[in-house]
């Protein structure tokens, strides 16, 4: 055997010599046949492959691919087959696989896949798949494959079911893993056709194929465009639901259940709960899904070494996705999938699972903090803390030092995060985002800062300073984004929630605000932010948060140098006046001939979100007037007082509720007390009359007292 092998190697070397020195094509062709025969027999090592390339380069295989005249008595595709065999040989060298001479052959590879495959052409198809696999692994490969149409060719090859079609599917999985967005942008119809076939096979399968498809299918479920947008996608979702309901309703081994849970999680990640039909069957399936996820989390995380088994982190992360959906569905009031009994049962089951998550996080060591599974665990706990504030309170309080420390470490280090099934969707094409764990904890922290014990822990752990730094960084991100109106971004949502946390601290711990320099720094940021933010009407909710927080803090920090009539302070209060003054307008009252007070059109769509902030802002602004002597002049300069007096003079009293009357009166009384000029403006606009009309007793008294004092002074 060794002798035969040695003889073949010697023959191969002679052929290489002929290839280098051949006088004509027939000599070269004969030598080439022997070389390609050796290649196909797998008798060529890396060194010899390189010798073959050095002997003939890319030029000769390229000639073979385009030649239209095969040798006598040979099939028409002979030259093309030889060329492809040589290229497949070269592609086993990673350096050559990414060469432009290989990449520009991609259209030829696609043509072979799309051509009818006779029994004597199978080796060509095998060689093409070998070339494409090598190109996919090259740095420039995925982009070139997508732009040169390989996704469509692979989809068609798989759907045709010809020789090597399973390799086409494997290559598609690999391409989607590294370039999902590009693939779907360019070839959505073809990929949808593959998903349609896979989902049909999944529904029909009665053997282990069903579970094998559970591993493949998640790669073909796009995050964008949504599958629910067209009928073919909706049909796929329907088949996947029925197939999963069949699988998860059966008795399963661990190895069968895990891929099914991962498939369900990928569907939730892409479509929420929209793929689960309404009705009894759908609600039972959803409850079963969340139940299974909770059981899996408990069984895994309560073990002494919970994640040592291979693939366990991926399964538990998928379960986190399902648990997060469970939280959302338990809170859903409009067209809920679950009835109240199911919701209560699931909340109890999820409470136990989150107890296991907390137990696991308490065991985490410092050297494990970079593990992405820790990030996924903190994120899902953040989702629970955001919505469920009464259960596991003691356990969460005990964990708060870890959560603050973890969020601080990631924030300071700006650690990169790769895409996780449960983590926020990031590009799967190489870009990375910071692990913003704090963003997922903010809603929970907002609830907790309203309560004494958790608030004290957060303060003791330095959360205010961290949140101030975080606010500043998020503000920088927001101001670097496009100023065009866009859906609410995670950055803007984080800024709003951080304002909510600080509002809680300002209301409950004013002494902390006075003594902690963090809040002076925050005040400086707010003074500069609002004037930039307010003109951008699509940021009105964030502007309301910034204005109200700034006004609340200004009452406490009124003695600071930053608020003593500085340019920044004047610009902030001018912007705050615009926010407060533009919220209401007079409009025709359909029920009478007069005018009624109404929310301004610019505020109408967001009024539910900013109503409480506006009332709190009015109260805070009024509280600032006696503390900042220059404020009455600012109100007059902005013509707020004049506009408010005119508004109250013209609208019907019945169109104003008690809360509005109280808010307006608070501002008017403080301005009247602080400034003779303000009193004169109010009186010149028949202030005594409408104060009486609206039942503003405090304003009436203030105007009467101040008026009497003025008369007495005048008499003397």
Automatic annotation (TrEMBL):
Signal sequence range: none
GO CC annotations on file: cytosol; dendrite; glutamatergic synapse; membrane; postsynapse
Cited InterPro entries: Neurochondrin (IPR008709)
GO biological process, one term: regulation of neuronal synaptic plasticity
Pfam families: Neurochondrin
Family of the protein in this entry: Belongs to the neurochondrin family.
Protein name: Neurochondrin
Organism (species): Serinus canaria
């Amino acid at each position: 055997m060794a002798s035969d092998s040695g003889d073949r190697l010697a023959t191969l070397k002679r052929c290489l010599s002929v290839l280098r020195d051949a006088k004509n094509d027939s000599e070269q062709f004969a030598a080439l046949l022997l070389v390609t025969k050796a290649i196909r027999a797998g008798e060529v090592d890396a060194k010899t492959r390189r010798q073959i390339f050095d002997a003939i380069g890319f030029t000769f295989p390229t000639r073979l691919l385009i030649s239209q005249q095969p040798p006598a008595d040979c099939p028409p595709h002979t030259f093309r087959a030889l060329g492809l065999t040589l290229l497949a040989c070269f592609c086993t060298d990673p350096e050559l696989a990414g060469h432009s001479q290989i990449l520009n052959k991609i259209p030829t590879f696609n043509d072979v896949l799309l051509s009818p495959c006779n029994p004597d052409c199978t080796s060509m198809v095998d060689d093409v798949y070998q070339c494409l696999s090598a190109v996919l692994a090259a740095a420039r490969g995925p982009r070139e494959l997508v732009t040169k149409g390989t996704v469509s060719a692979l989809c068609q090859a798989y759907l045709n079911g010809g020789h090597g079609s399973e390799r086409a599917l494997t290559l598609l999985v690999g391409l989607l893993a590294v370039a999902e967005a590009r693939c779907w942008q360019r070839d959505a119809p073809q990929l949808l056709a593959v998903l349609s076939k896979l989902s049909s096979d999944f529904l029909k399968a009665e053997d282990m194929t069903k579970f094998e498809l559970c591993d493949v299918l998640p790669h073909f479920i796009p995050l964008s465009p949504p599958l629910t947008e067209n009928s073919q996608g909706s049909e796929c979702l329907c088949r996947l639901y029925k197939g999963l309901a069949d699988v998860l309703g059966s008795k399963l081994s661990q190895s069968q259940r895990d891929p099914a849970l991962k498939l369900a999680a990928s569907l939730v990640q892409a479509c929420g709960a929209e793929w689960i039909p309404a009705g009894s069957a759908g609600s039972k399936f959803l409850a079963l899904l969340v139940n299974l996820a909770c059981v899996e989390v408990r069984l895994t995380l309560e073990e002494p070494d919970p994640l040592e088994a291979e693939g366990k982190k991926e399964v538990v992360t998928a379960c986190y996705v399902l648990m997060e959906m469970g939280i959302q569905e338990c809170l859903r009031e409009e067209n809920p999938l679950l009835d109240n009994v199911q919701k209560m049962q699931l909340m109890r089951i999820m409470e136990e699972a989150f107890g296991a998550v907390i137990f696991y996080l308490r065991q985490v060591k410092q050297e494990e903090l970079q593990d992405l599974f820790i990030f996924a665990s903190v994120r899902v706990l953040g989702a629970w803390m955001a919505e469920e504030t009464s259960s596991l309170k003691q356990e969460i309080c005990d964990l708060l030092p870890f959560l603050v420390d973890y969020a601080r470490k990631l924030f300071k280090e700006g650690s990169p995060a790769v895409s996780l099934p449960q983590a926020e969707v990031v590009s799967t094409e190489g870009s990375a985002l910071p692990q913003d764990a704090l963003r997922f904890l903010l809603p929970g922290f907002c609830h907790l800062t309203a309560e004494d014990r958790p608030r004290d822990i957060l303060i003791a752990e330095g959360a205010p300073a961290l949140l101030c730094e975080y606010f500043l960084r998020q503000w920088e991100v927001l101001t670097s984004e496009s100023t065009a109106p866009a859906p609410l971004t995670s950055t803007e949502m984080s800024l709003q929630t951080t304002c909510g946390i600080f509002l809680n601290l300002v209301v409950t711990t004013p002494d902390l605000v006075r003594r902690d320099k963090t809040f002076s720094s925050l005040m400086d940021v707010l003074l500069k932010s609002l004037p930039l933010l307010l003109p951008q009407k699509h940021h009105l909710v964030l502007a309301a948060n910034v204005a109200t927080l700034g006004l609340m803090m200004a009452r406490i920090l009124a003695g600071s140098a930053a608020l003593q009539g500085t340019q920044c302070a004047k610009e902030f209060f001018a912007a705050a006046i615009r926010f407060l003054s533009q919220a209401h307008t007079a409009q025709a009252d359909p029920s009478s001939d007069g005018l009624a007070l109404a929310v301004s059109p610019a505020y109408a769509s967001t009024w539910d979100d900013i109503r409480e902030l506006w009332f709190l802002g009015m109260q805070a602004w009024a509280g600032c007037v006696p503390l900042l002597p220059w404020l009455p002049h600012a109100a007059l300069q902005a013509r707020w007082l004049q506009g408010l007096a005119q508004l109250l003079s013209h609208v019907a009293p019945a169109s104003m509720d008690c809360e509005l009357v109280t808010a307006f009166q608070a501002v008017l009384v403080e301005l009247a007390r602080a400034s003779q000029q303000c009193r004169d403006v109010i009186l010149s606009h028949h202030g005594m009359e409408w104060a009486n009309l609206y039942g503003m007793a405090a304003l009436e008294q203030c105007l009467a007292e101040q008026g009497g004092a003025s008369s007495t002074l005048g008499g003397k």
